[in-house]
Write a structure and sequence with these properties.
By secondary structure, the protein is mainly alpha-helical. About 55% of the residues lie in helices and about 0% in strands.
């Protein structure tokens, strides 16, 4: 006797609903510990640190090096995504400026991602051989203590 295949929903957890687990549904993924997220973030920041120090994009992982872009499609992408051609130090400063903006405005109340988000973005940038997001993220991540030290905060409200 042949049994019909089980629906795909019984193999994969439904991540978008809060419905009860089905009997034959696998357990959901458990999130990484904050300590492991921090270690993963630090490991994925090695290439961006080297790039910012040298002010040119470098990689310690040779098989993830970016291929040279050629042709009309590459020219269109370079035109549209001009910011992707910016030097790592400038992107670091832009990331720092964005962090200052976040700390000094109401944005801090709604947007303060965890270190796991940074690790995930760096992993995606590594997987796609995209170099610029990690330099920007490095500036964002390391500048928070600097801005706090300089007492960056929202402007004081003067009541008259």
């Amino acid at each position: 006797l042949l049994m019909p295949p089980a629906p795909a929903s019984s193999y994969f957890p439904n991540l978008f609903s809060s419905s009860e687990k089905k009997i034959n549904q696998p357990s959901e993924l458990k999130p990484l510990s904050p300590r492991l997220c921090k270690a993963l973030f630090c490991a994925t920041m090695i290439n961006p640190v080297i790039s910012v120090c040298a002010n040119e994009y470098r990689s310690l992982v040779p098989f993830l090096k970016r291929r040279s872009d050629r042709g009309r499609t590459a020219a269109v992408y370079r035109t549209i995504f001009y910011f992707a051609r910016l030097k790592p130090r400038l992107l670091f400063v832009i990331g720092s400026a964005l962090r200052a903006l976040q700390l000094t405005t109401a944005v801090r109340l709604v947007f303060d991602p965890s270190i796991g988000v940074g690790a995930g973005l760096n992993l995606m940038a590594l997987a796609t051989a995209s170099r610029w997001p990690s330099a920007l993220l490095l500036g964002w991540a390391v500048s928070k203590p600097f801005w706090i030290f300089l007492r960056a905060g929202p402007p004081e409200r003067k009541v008259q």
